[in-house]
């Protein structure tokens, strides 16, 4: 039986015509089991029916496709139970429903096994016999094994489009992971790297000096490419997204990749071989990590390596003519690939590999380009010459869709553009509800803050400047002078608005390359204020630099991360005062005249801080909620761990209850409080936060105008009703549905689904 089974499945795999393969298969199964009929029914989820795709023995008298409605008959029962049914006389079974206009009435014995792929029932294999008897255990095992093997084959065939014909009842579609919201239609533009590391043949060389020179020249050209790409993207994406290219540059440093490649060259290998070995070794190390964010860095390393290889091979970037509007498709869409193509012509993105943590996904979201990632069971060449429709909300991709689907997608895309235009037209107006409740919108910033587009944003200040990013981009701690220069740029960019600078927050998911931290559980370890208070020399230098940068200005605010107790606030305050008087004396400043004592704030991200608020109130000027880490610590979930990442949810009832309690406690003690996590830039999250009483929200630049428009189209009474329902909900899904329904009812559905 095993040999027969393998032969049948191999025949299906190799068949150029899938319908023919199924027809051949059912005949072979019927012959192998010496039974009277074998049929395969495939699920048509749109019509909610099982459709007979092939049969040897069961036939329709009128020649039309045999269909069984979901929930009816023994076939549906096997699908519902997700287990095989072995019935001696199906005609007497209570679930039996005769298939009209077929010869089914001549059969008695029935064996039905569901075809399941990744928890989804794709179809049913059904074997009939004319006599009333149960199938043997061996026969049942054969059919169950066949169904299991057939599952991947059918899923793969569906992805290839082999199930689709002019008579097919299905609209051909693929499902991936939503990467960036929006819908788009366009021709597929398939992109492949000019040079591939896996195509390099290992070779030796007796000219190490020559090979090292070639390698360094290739690195220099790659650096120039990256600098050009970064300049091209300036103004199109937020500064913290643009920092991706600085990460790329850092990978080319001697301490990262350079020394390792040159050492291999000195051992007698060609530069291309050494590069291949080193990069593939780094890629393997990243891919072996459990942290999904760090896993995605394997894509970045491979991208950089292949760019260097392209220059080593003296290849030029060749690109076929670009359609006016296209969907970029690649095995791995990279940030550099995205930056090379004209933004106005990229309608959407499909990356066969990758996740929402990839740099391509991050850039797509910041550029408002719909993206779908992680598309399985498909090869790149199947997209060639195809027309595609992409839904970045659901992860759905339609291949050569019919006219009605195209018309719908074009309509949705037009509506989304109209919505973006409306939002942009009102960007100069204040962020306030229809009943006049004013909300301050602030920016979260990272590396580069000198872009001109920031000056055009209608914002009220910087709610969070992540000072650790410049630390992470260097191979040693930046000096006080270097830090002073960086902080001056930030403060001068927003001279009349408050700028909240968070002190160094490293550890956990943000290690410093020159300050290695090896801990069993870094998220509960030596990070944030814990690290800097243990190293006052690092903390004092940073505070001094901030104060020096603020001379003559009054917009500096200092924010302390990872606070769990008042003693940490006391110690940090003492060091800040020490630095303040040192700078005043050294720079000849008059206290309170041209050197102002900055306001001090504490981040609420550790649950313990919630219960320390009254005790901290007299020691600080404001609070800022880091909703990302607060969610992580409340739910005991590492959001970067793919095994439990699905449990990380800021809409969890416990998280919302905690945020509500924080807002109430801060109001009672009379201290301003803001939110600077991702929830503040989420449409539904922003509404709930405002209902709780938060009056300052800090977010990435591309969310500012969207949140402003949403707030201008709601009343406080509506928000209060939404909050009451959210706090009574039992799970995040209930809360999301409530938000979606409410936003739909007040005309804001376009912010949570496709369309306007």
UniProtKB/TrEMBL annotation:
Show the SUPFAM superfamilies listed in the entry: Enzyme I of the PEP:sugar phosphotransferase system HPr-binding (sub)domain (SSF47831), GAF domain-like (SSF55781), Phosphoenolpyruvate/pyruvate domain (SSF51621), Phosphohistidine domain (SSF52009)
Q: Which reaction does it catalyse?
A: L-histidyl-[protein] + phosphoenolpyruvate = N(pros)-phospho-L-histidyl-[protein] + pyruvate
Q: What Pfam family is a match for this entry?
A: GAF
Annotated Gene Ontology MF terms? kinase activity; metal ion binding; phosphoenolpyruvate-protein phosphotransferase activity
Which is a Gene Ontology cellular component entry for this protein? cytoplasm
Main location as per UniProt: cytoplasm
- Enzyme Commission no: 2.7.3.9
Q: Which GO terms describe its biological process?
A: phosphoenolpyruvate-dependent sugar phosphotransferase system
Q: Which InterPro entries match?
A: GAF, GAF-like_dom_sf, PEP-util_enz_mobile_dom, PEP-utilizing_PTS_enzyme, PEP_util_C, PEP_util_CS, Phosphohistidine_dom_sf, PTS_EI-like
Q: Which UniProt keywords apply?
A: Cytoplasm, Kinase, Magnesium, Metal-binding, Phosphotransferase system, Pyruvate, Sugar transport, Transferase, Transport
Q: Which cofactor does it need?
A: Mg(2+)
- Please identify the protein, giving its name as recorded: phosphoenolpyruvate--protein phosphotransferase
Source gene? Answer: ptsP
């Amino acid at each position: 039986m095993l040999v027969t089974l393998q032969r049948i499945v191999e025949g299906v795999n190799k068949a150029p015509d899938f319908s023919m393969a199924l027809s051949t298969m059912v005949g072979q199964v019927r012959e192998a089991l010496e039974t009277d009929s074998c049929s395969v029914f495939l699920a048509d989820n749109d019509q909610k029916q099982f459709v007979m795709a092939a049969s040897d023995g069961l036939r329709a008298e009128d020649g039309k496709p045999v269909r069984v409605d979901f929930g009816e008959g023994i076939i549906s029962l096997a699908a519902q139970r997700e287990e095989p049914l072995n019935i001696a006389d199906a005609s007497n079974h209570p679930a039996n429903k005769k298939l009209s206009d077929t010869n089914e009435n001549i059969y008695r014995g029935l064996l039905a096994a569901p075809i399941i792929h990744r928890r989804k029932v794709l179809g049913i294999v059904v074997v009939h016999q004319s006599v009333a008897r149960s199938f043997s255990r061996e026969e049942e095992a054969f059919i169950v094994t066949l169904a299991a093997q057939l599952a991947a084959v059918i899923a793969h065939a569906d992805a290839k489009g082999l199930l689709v014909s002019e008579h097919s009842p299905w609209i051909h579609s693929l499902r991936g992971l939503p990467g960036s919201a929006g819908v788009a239609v366009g021709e597929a533009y398939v992109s492949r790297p000019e040079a591939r590391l896996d195509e390099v043949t290992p070779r030796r060389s007796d000219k190490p000096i020559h090979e090292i020179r070639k390698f360094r020249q290739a690195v220099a050209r790659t650096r120039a490419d990256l600098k050009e790409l970064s300049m091209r993207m300036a103004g199109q994406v937020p500064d913290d997204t643009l920092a991706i290219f600085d990460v790329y540059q850092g990978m080319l440093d001697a301490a990262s990749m350079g020394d390792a490649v040159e050492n291999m060259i000195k051992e007698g290998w060609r530069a291309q071989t050494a590069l291949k070995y080193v990069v593939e070794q780094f890629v393997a190390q990243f891919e072996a990590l459990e942290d999904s964010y760090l896993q995605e860095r394997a894509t970045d390393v491979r991208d950089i390596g292949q760019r260097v290889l392209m220059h080593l091979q003296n290849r030029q970037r060749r690109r076929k003519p670009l359609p006016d509007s296209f969907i970029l498709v690649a095995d791995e869409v990279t940030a550099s690939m995205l930056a090379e193509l004209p933004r106005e012509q990229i309608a959407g993105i499909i990356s066969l590999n990758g996740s929402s943590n990839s740099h391509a996904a991050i850039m797509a979201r910041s550029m408002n380009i719909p993206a779908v990632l992680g598309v399985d069971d498909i090869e790149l060449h199947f997209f060639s010459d195809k027309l595609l429709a992409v839904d970045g909300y659901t992860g759905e991709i339609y291949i050569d869709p019919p006219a009605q689907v195209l018309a719908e997608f074009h309509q949705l895309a037009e509506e989304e553009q109209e919505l973006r235009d409306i939002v942009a037209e009102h960007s100069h107006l204040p962020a306030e509800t229809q009943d006049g409740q004013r909300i301050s919108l602030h920016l979260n910033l990272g590396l580069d803050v000198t872009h001109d587009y920031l000056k055009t944003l209608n914002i009220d200040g910087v709610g969070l400047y992540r000072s650790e990013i410049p630390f992470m981009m260097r191979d040693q701690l930046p000096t006080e002078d270097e830090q002073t220069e960086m902080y001056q740029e930030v403060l001068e960019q927003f001279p009349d608005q408050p700028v909240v600078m968070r002190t160094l927050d490293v550890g956990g998911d943000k290690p410093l390359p020159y300050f290695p931290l090896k801990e069993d559980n870094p998220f509960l370890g030596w990070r944030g204020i814990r690290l800097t208070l243990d190293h006052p020399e690092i903390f004092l230098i940073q505070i001094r630099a901030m104060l020096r940068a603020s001379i003559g200005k009054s917009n500096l605010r200092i924010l302390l991360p990872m606070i769990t107790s008042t003693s940490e606030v006391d110690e940090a305050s003492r060091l800040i005062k020490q630095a303040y008087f040192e700078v005043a004396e050294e720079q000849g400043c008059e206290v309170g005249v041209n050197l102002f004592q900055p306001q001090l704030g504490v981040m609420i991200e550790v649950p313990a801080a919630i219960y320390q608020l009254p005790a901290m109130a007299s020691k600080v000027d404001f609070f800022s909620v880091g909703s990302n880490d607060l969610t992580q610590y409340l739910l005991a979930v590492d959001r970067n761990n793919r095994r439990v990442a699905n449990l990380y949810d800021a809409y969890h009832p416990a998280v919302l209850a905690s945020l509500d309690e924080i807002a109430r406690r801060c109001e009672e003690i009379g201290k301003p409080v803001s939110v600077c996590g991702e929830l503040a830039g989420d449409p539904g999250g922003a509404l709930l936060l405002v209902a709780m009483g938060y009056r300052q929200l800090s977010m990435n630049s591309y969310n500012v105008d969207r949140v402003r428009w949403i707030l201008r189209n709601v009343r406080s009474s509506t928000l209060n009703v939404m909050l009451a329902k959210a706090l009574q909900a039992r799970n995040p899904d209930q809360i999301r549905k409530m938000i979606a329904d409410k936003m739909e009812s007040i005309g804001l559905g376009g912010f949570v689904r496709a369309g306007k």
